[in-house]
Every structure is written in C-alpha cells, then in structure tokens.
Amino acid sequence: MMPESPPVALMAGQRQTVTVEDIAFGGEGVARVDAFVVFIPFVMVGETVEVEITEVRKNFARARLHRVLTPSLERVTPACAHFGACGGCQYQHIAYPAQLQLKRKQVADLFQRIGGLPPELVAPVVPCPQPYGYRNRIMIRSQWNKPEQRLNIGFVRADCGLVEDVFTCHIAEPALNEQIRHVRAHPPPKGGIKVVLRIPPENWEVPPDSFFQNNSFLLPKLVEVVREAVRAGGARHLIDLYCGVGFFGIELADAVTSFVGVEFDQRAIAAARRNAATRGRTNGEFIAATVEAALPALLQRFSPSASAVILDPPRKGCLPPTLALLREQRPAQIIYISCHPATMARDLNILCRDGVFSVARVTPLDMFPQTQHVECVADVRAVAR
Questions:
Q1: Number of domains making up the chain
Q2: Among the three residues 33, 55, 70, which one is the final residue of a domain in this structure?
Q3: What is the dihedral of CA 41, 374, 356, 305, to 10 degrees?
Q4: Structural domain range at position 321
C-alpha cells in the first residue's frame, strides 16, 4: 500500500539512487524510496539510476534523471539532440522492439485496471514500418526568449511550459522539416503564435482544421484491422460516428451493403461527400450532425442485428447518452478506435456492464513511435440475450 506521506528525508533538490520497477502509462518510470513512489522520465525497467527529486506530494514524488548507473541492454542513443528537453517524444532511448512490448503491457494493464478486461484480449502491438520520419502533421509554437533576446520556434518542453528551439523534428516527414526551416527563415512577428504544418494526404480532401490520421505509413494496416473486424462480425450496414472526412466509411464501403457517416464539422462532411464521389462510393451518405442527435434515428433505420457502429471519438471519449443509447439498442458490433486507451477502457467498461457487450479483441497499433501514445482498435460484440 502506498504510504500517506513521504519519508521524512525526501525533499526537492535531494539526490537518490533508485531502481526502476515499471514504466507507467504516459512514459514515466516507477521507482521507490522506502516504499514511497517516485516517477522519473527517460528511464527503463531494471535500470539503477541517480535522480534529483523535483517535487514531493502527499502520495508520490517526481524526479529528474541525473545519470544512469546500470543501463538496460535495450537502451539506445536517441536520434534527436532535443530528446529529453522537447516534450514531443518520451521513448527515443528505448530500442524499437522494446517500445512495442512496453506499449502492449501498458495497454493490457490499463484495460485490466479501468476496463476490467483480461490481458490476453490485447494483441501484440502492430509495428510502424517507419519508426522515424512518419508524422504528416505537427504544430510548432513561437515564444520570445527574453534572456537571449530572440524568438524560440519549436515545441513545448517536457519539463515546463517554455518552448524548446527546434531546427529538425526526427519523427516528422522530411517535407515537414522543410516547412520548419521555412518558418524559421520567415518567423512569426511575435511569440505566442501556433503554426500547423501538414502534408495533405494523397487523394483525400481535408479542410485545414479537420482531423486526419497523422501516420500515413501505418494507415493501410489500421484500415486492414478494422476491415477484418467488420468482415468477422458479418454486418451489412455500417454507421461511422465522428467520421471526419469520411475515411473509414469510404475505405470500408465495399465490405458492407450501405454506410452512413456522422460528423458535426460541416466542412468535413462536405469534404467527405466529395471524397466519396472521387472514389465512386455510391452506397453511402454523410450527415452533418452531432452523434447524440443523429444516432437514435440511425439505430431505428437499420436493423441492429445487421449493423456495425464505428466509434472514433475525440480523446475525451464518448458522451454518456451515446453509450446509454448503444447499450439500449445493442447493435451487433461496435468497433471502437482511439488514441487514448484510458478513456477507451472507461467507455468499454460502461458498454460491457451487466453483460450487454463483450470485447472480442483489442489490437494496438503503433501510430506514434518514440512517444507514449498508441492507437487501439477494439472489436466489441453484442451478447445474445
């Protein structure tokens, strides 16, 4: 049991030598000082490290890595000189195969703790074919560096809200690094400005503020995982909620008799209709509405026993009325897609409560190598009454 207060001697600024026991979801290592939990970034399980305590709370402390005394065999040299300062990456010090194993364990632990799901339901993490240079969208910020009297352009630091001055991002596609150099050559007029850099996905219309997956290299595998789930479930009708520019509905149109996409962003819906027309997808439609407003009529329109619902919500997850309606109507299948496993596990716990649904499988995909983030696809089936 975690102690209610820290050891008397533990205080900010103090050096401690600890052994890392685990890596928590979010990327921080877990160690203990006299059974008191200490969180440390940029470490690996089994390492003995010297740390400096930076913060002491009632139930835990945080520390800064000072040096690694006994390194893990899977520790590698980070590719980026900004790693450890820039807040964009958490795992560049970990060999890529070990990153995949770590993420699978973290997802399984999270789903067991929050969702009540057995770990064996979580498949191995699908690797990205390009662990660096994969992101097609980034957001850089400008901030006036008063001590040096210059403008910093880059990403928010890992240890504070200041901006780390960045010339190259190793997880971004090369074309985005060209754009970074252009922004640095033509900087914003002042600090506090955010600049979104994006490589438009090939043959897809995406309005500036609309969502599209940030990793084009693993996107075909993501579609394959969802397609296999739809085919295994045998649904004839597909209801694609939070559909954005229509990606999943359009990609899976040939696997079902009909599909409907729902999205509140009207510009995204207009783009979805044009994307469908470009690809000759004529067995579907797109509705500009909130999920909560559109879902009741759609679940009345299609036979629940022949319908699959794709849930690809924002990071905050689904609203309670949506989950309640799905529990009430019981579509044959729900395919939940999320880059935030914690809210996903919470929502799956609600959907599966009292045996209404059950999770057949969770497939993590490493859409975000070198970072704490991971995309998950859950195949959820209605339980026969």
A1: 3
A2: 70
A3: 170
A4: 99-129+212-382
Q: Are residues 231 and 358 in the same domain?
A: yes
- Residues 23 and 134: their CA atoms lie apart, in Å, by 24
What is the pTM (predicted TM-score) of this model? 0.94
The per-residue pLDDT string of the chain (385 residues; one tens digit each, 9 = 90 and over) reads 555 566 657 899 999 999 999 999 989 999 999 989 999 999 999 999 999 999 999 999 999 999 999 999 999 999 999 999 999 999 999 999 999 999 999 999 999 999 889 999 999 999 999 999 999 999 999 999 999 999 999 999 988 889 999 999 999 999 999 999 999 999 999 999 999 999 999 999 999 889 999 999 999 999 999 999 999 999 999 999 999 999 999 999 999 999 999 999 999 999 999 999 999 999 999 999 999 999 999 988 998 999 999 999 999 999 999 999 999 999 999 999 999 999 999 999 999 999 999 999 999 999 999 999 999 999 999 998 7
Is residue 326 domain-resident? yes
d(CA 104, CA 110): 10
CA dist 100 and 119 (Å) reads: 15
